[in-house]
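Work Package 3 (structural annotation) set out to generate three-dimensional models for the target panel prioritized at the project kickoff. During this period the team completed the workflow that converts sequence records into discrete structure tokens, so that structures can be stored uniformly alongside our sequence database. As a representative example, we reproduce one entry of 243 residues exactly as it appears in the project archive.
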Amino acid sequence: MKKIIKSLVRSVGFDVIRYLPSLSATAQLRQIFLNQSFDVVIDVGANKGNYVKDLRGIGYRDIIIAFEPQSSAYIELQKIANKDRKLILPPRMALGDRNGEITLNISANSESSSVVSMIDSHLKAAPDSVCIGTEVVPVRRLDAVLLDYLPSQSKSIYMKIDVQGFERQVLVGAEGILPLVKGIQLELSLTPLYKGELSISEMINQMHATGFNIYAILPAFTENSTGRAYQMDGIFIREDALS
């Protein structure tokens, strides 16, 4: 009977799996949060708030500080913040390795927008990521602005970075506050999608040099027509916090 039900569900594009960390990325993320007792999340590249919704969906109820540069996405994020008193929304800005202004390339699908130009392999795998315009936005170092929003009683900070090829620059601009951070989630590219982005091995090595060890891998961007994986999310935990 179970096989029949699974077959029927899969025939309409869905699946039924047990809610376990070994089988479900959502269950895995939930268990990591429970195990590490994070009490503040820094959401870098929050877009329209999908990650905020995901965290609330797994039961995380503490502070989220969300940074987003894109004007249309920021408006949607504000709507969520109006109903979520523990979602802190700083002024619209990009985060990077300097303070000033930077040009943001706006993609048709919004989530692929980046200050870095994408390469042809990305556009081929996801045609809806095509650039449809640009915006000049403020850019700030995270270590220059975070303490204005970080609760003084924070004990276990988690940072999620979703900046489409600009991860290295964000990490450089966060150097002053990284000692306060216990966990980091960021995209790892199996093949280059943006000009100048670090490869998966380079990113893992950089994180290790900064004192963070790879802890978990979550699926991210897979091309539906071929099954090829282009990106995954790596979760890193500070070495001295690992048991």
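The chain has a mean pLDDT of 88.
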